[in-house]
Amino acid sequence: MMHWPRRHSSGLLLGAGLLVLSGLTLSCSALNPALRYEEAARQLRFSLDRVEPKVELAFPLEHSRLRLRLEVGVDNPTGERMRTRRVTGNLRLRYQGEDLAIGAVGFPEGADISPKGRSLLKVEVTFGYADLKTAWGPLSHAVLRKEPATWNLTGEARFTTLGIEYGVPFRVQKESGK
Q1: Cα–Cα distance list, 110 to 19, 56, 86, 113, 121 (Å)
Q2: What is the mean pLDDT of the segment spanning 27-36?
Q3: Number of folded domains that form the chain
Q4: ∠ CA 101-59-104 to the nearest 5 degrees?
Q5: For residue 129, is pLDDT > 70?
Q6: What is the SS3 string spanning 142-169?
Q7: Is 51 among the domain residues?
Q8: Is residue 16 over pLDDT 80?
Q9: Is residue 30 part of a domain?
Q10: How far apart are CA 178 and CA 147, in angstroms?
Q11: Which residues contact 163 (CB under 8 A, 6 or more apart)?
């Protein structure tokens, strides 16, 4: 029986396979530019820049309401221009150790996020006394008496790029009354 010398073809095949796979990985973002935008969106930094609460007292108390102007800053360190599809969040107030739910907040659709710059998302929302019944006492102390409190907004910015939708979660806060 004749034996042929063994060649190390399996090593060559393995090396060639790894080279092809690494080339596919590197060119994946070139083949799918949506991945580049999704990665850029994950680098965005959010901040709660302004909370302007105004309690509008009425008689009877059930007709009272809270009007809020909110501004969320978005820092974009990337060179990609982005446009939000939808930005939503849940607003809470932390007052004297209590964490109180205020309500859901939605920002206008289609906000521009400038490349290598800062953009502001602005919204004005109104909540009625019935929505805030359990939080009304601490809320009125924090707003009317300007006592120390912390506003928290936990949300998500949604984007669609080339038909692919994705979200970027954020959590921001702002101290008030100090």
Answers
A1: 41, 30, 7, 9, 10
A2: 65
A3: 1
A4: 20
A5: yes
A6: HHHCCCCEEEEEEEEEEEEECCEEEEEE
A7: yes
A8: no
A9: yes
A10: 7
A11: 34
